[in-house]
Specification:
The chain is globular and about 65 Å long. The mean pLDDT is 96. It has a seven-stranded parallel beta sheet with strand order 3-2-1-4-5-6-7, with helices on both faces. Strands 10-9-8-11-12-13 form a six-stranded parallel beta sheet, with helices on both faces. The protein is α/β, with parallel strands linked by helices. It has 13 helices and 13 strands. Strand 8 (186-191), helix 7 (196-212) and strand 9 (218-221) form a beta-alpha-beta unit. The relative contact order is 0.13. The chain folds into two domains: 2-169 and 340-361, Rossmann fold; 182-337, 3-Layer(aba) Sandwich (Rossmann fold).
């Protein structure tokens, strides 16, 4: 099938945490015979901070962030068998979700793919005239990369026909163990952009633990932290491109994951960082959230901290041998159960079953 995918960026992870998710899933779908056309705007400096060039498994259409260019790329939805509008494109989101679905052929499969469902639901829940709410009942699927039962119930309660989580996962060809790199040596490393709905949790976990352990080294990667007051043992290194994620994850004693507020509250929302770290064989410490046991087992495959004091205690007691054992156990688990090959197979089945249903009903353009 020809899949027209309108998202933030396939080529750049700059201010775009969904990049590795898109790459893992869409590359697998291409390997299953689907034709991928990814539409991304030239916005937020992403094209100046590319991690990859257009890959052989997808055609990438970068369009200017103008209304004229928007009209052109929306019209191309009519050429696709599957039309996908992802959340968080960053420019023209409302116009895109209505425009591409209106342009799609009657026999096309229409999908809204939400990469931050808790935040989206908070935005549209009390806004019955929101653009997404206006098209929601006409879509064939809402797919999300997290959220579990609470998100399914919320979306279907708002009129979605079917809401199905397609969780983050590991692409073992991209994220895997590598030798340690002195640039990223630390006791605890944390990689995340500075965002309003995460910052307070970063203070309660990462920065609090750093203040409690002044003799330990803490490494912070990501955009936006330059003017944030921090303990002196925290080193800020700015944006870390995806080509360095493996070394970032393997060069410290442990790697930290902190969920955004809405994802922590909703649960069932493992970030891409969880699978990247596990795929590199890193010892992962995460904040607590409901549904974690679906992905990793606490105490054996991941350590869980409920505040900065508990995070500091994990670091005090963690030995290199135990960190290595936890990382190896996590790697085995995600390779067995949580790869993009598994997620891609799930999406492929959904698309083929839906297309068979549409054709059986005789819907034509």
């Amino acid at each position: 099938m020809r899949i027209a995918f309108y998202g933030s960026s396939l080529l750049s992870s700059y201010w775009n945490g969904a990049a590795t998710y898109y790459r893992g899933l869409l590359r697998d779908l291409a390997a299953r015979g689907h034709e991928i056309i990814f539409y991304e705007p030239d916005a937020f400096g992403r094209q100046q901070h590319r991690d990859i060039e257009p890959p052989p498994w997808a055609e990438v259409r970068v369009y200017p962030a103008t209304t004229d260019a928007l009209r052109e790329v929306m019209a191309e939805a009519a050429l696709a068998d599957v039309v996908v509008k992802a959340s968080g494109v960053g420019v023209f989101d409302d116009e895109l979700v209505e425009g591409v679905m209106a342009a799609a052929r009657p026999d096309a499969i229409r999908i809204f793919w939400d990469v931050d469902a808790p935040a989206t639901l908070a935005e549209i829940g009390d806004a019955p005239d929101h653009a997404l709410r206006r098209v929601l009942s006409s879509l064939d699927f809402v797919l999300t990369y997290g959220g579990g039962p609470p998100v399914i119930a919320a979306y279907e309660g708002l009129g979605a026909r079917r809401c199905i989580p397609i969780y983050n996962a590991l692409d073992p060809e991209t994220h895997h163990p590598v030798p340690a790199d002195p640039r990223f040596a630390a006791d605890l490393s944390f990689l995340a952009n500075r965002l309003p709905d995460r910052e307070a949790r970063v203070e309660r976990f990462f920065l609090d633990a750093a203040a409690r352990l002044p003799d330990r080294r803490f490494l912070l990667g990501g955009n936006g932290w330059d003017d944030k007051p921090m303990p002196g043992n925290v080193q800020r290194i700015g944006h870390v491109g995806t080509r360095d994620h493996n070394a970032f994850n393997t060069s410290s004693l442990a790697v930290l994951n902190i969920a955004r507020d809405s994802m922590a509250l909703t649960g069932y929302s493992p970030a891409t960082r969880v699978f990247e770290a596990a795929g590199a064989g890193a010892c992962l410490i995460t904040d607590a959230w409901v549904g974690l046991e679906l992905f990793l087992k606490e105490g054996e495959e991941v350590l869980v901290a409920r505040d900065g004091a508990e995070l500091a205690e994990h670091l005090r007691s963690l030995t290199p041998a135990r960190a290595k054992a936890i990382g190896e156990a996590a790697l085995s688990r995600v390779l067995a159960e949580h790869t993009y090959a598994r997620r891609g197979a799930e999406v492929d089945r959904l698309l083929r079953n839906e297309m068979a249903r549409v054709r059986a009903q005789g819907v034509t353009a």
